[in-house]
Amino acid sequence: MATVTNWIDLISASEAVGEVYPGASGMVGNMSNETLLVVIGVVLWIGWHLITSISESEKLSKIARKRPGPNDHKSNVTNW
Q: Is 4 in a helix, a strand, or coil?
C-alpha cells in the first residue's frame, strides 16, 4: 500500500483525475450518492415527525377521555 506524502502532488497527478473522497462519483439512476442520502434523510425525518405526532395525539386523547380536573396532578393521581 502506497503512502501519500504530498497531497498536492497526488491530486494534480494525471492518473489521479477525479474525486478525492470515496463515493463521490457513484450514481443511482440520475442521482448522485449524496443526493440519494439527503432524500432518504428527509423522508426519515418527516416519517419520524409523523409517527411522533400520531403517538402523542393518542396519549393526549386518552388523557382527555379521562377528563382530569385542573387540580388532579396535585393529589398525585396515578395513570395520569
A: coil
Q: What is the pLDDT of residues 7-40, one digit of tens each?
A: 666 666 666 656 656 556 666 667 777 888 889 9
C-alpha cell at 27: 450514481
11: Cβ contacts below 8 Å, ≥ 6 apart? 20
Mean pLDDT, the chain, integer: 76
CA atoms within 13 A on the CB side of 53: 6
Q: Can you give the pLDDT at residue 47?
A: 97
DSSP class per residue in 20-76: SSTTSS-EETTEEHHHHHHHHHHHHHHHHHHHHHHHHHHHHHHHHHH---TTGGGGT
**β-strand partners of 31:** 28
